[in-house]
Amino acid sequence: MPDLPLVEVVVAILIRPDSSFLLTCRPTGKPYSGYWEFPGGKIETGESPVQALARELNEELGITPDQATPWLTRLFSYPHATVQLRFYRVTSWQGEPAPREQQQLAWQTADNVTVSPLLPANIPILRSLMLPSIYAITCAAETGVEASLLSIRQAFQSGIKLLQIREKAMPPDQLECYVQTVLQLARNNHQVTVLLNGNIALAQTVQADGIHLTSTQLLSLTARPTVNWCGASCHNAEELKRAEQLGVDFVTLSPVYPTLSHPGAPSLGWDKFSVLLRDYPLPVYALGGLQPTDLAIAQEHGAHGIAMMRGI
After folding, report:
1. In principle, which of 22, 156, 193, 239 could form an S-S bond with 234, CB 3.0–4.6 Å?
2. Which fold has domain 134-308?
3. pTM strictly above 0.70
4. Every domain of the chain and the residues it spans
5. What is the rounded average pLDDT of the residues 247-276?
6. Where are the alpha helices (DSSP H) in 118-214?
């Protein structure tokens, strides 16, 4: 059987301030008519992905993107072709989206998609859209447990929705008590997702929302742990590839800048960070010496968001 042709496609995730995004329904006469998808289309010869994105949004919806950042790149095989989908998050645009091709439009949220059927290649993207842009990490070993819990309460009240408990030096009994307390805080009207670093057995015992694998675990495991959410720590191309093979939900890539926890360790910088992320299919949190003000530059270089320990 001959190899299927590779079709380069650019896809726009139009995101409003309330985190809702736009889906469009393919009109009659097109392949997969009646299926819902994110707007976009083929990259024409001589176009860059950004140029193709602007053209497609104008042709389909009559808008011009102001703010578009690279996000994920995924391969998907249809019976007629293999498509390489370059997803961009578009958070600002000129004009109001209107159906220029007689397609239906619907604003949706990742946890409540009410239209169907979805184009198969777009279904995995919904889970990635559930992830917030900030990933908080605990550091009770430095601040003390009480100060850490106070900081966590304040973070939850300020809107943090994803937290990793990373307390490798904490004694097991104390750790379980600490984890239980954090989980109670997270579930007390905050709807925060809590992952436990490294300790799969404890995460399953206390029914945490998931696990964050160390890079050592990532390279040694042969299957993804049985948890709802699974993240992984990566520092190089080998670990990024393994995370993709294992099917984790997202990764952290570090260190972007020098950090207090790893003094003297070489840092990536944004140029190397963006090279490692080129054509990568999973959401990536930039980690290492970052502050909330670094979110925009991280996303410009392909990150889903930023992860912070002291910066939180």
Report:
1. 239
2. TIM Barrel (3.20.20)
3. yes
4. 6-124, 134-308
5. 90
6. 123-129, 140-143, 145-157, 172-186, 200-205
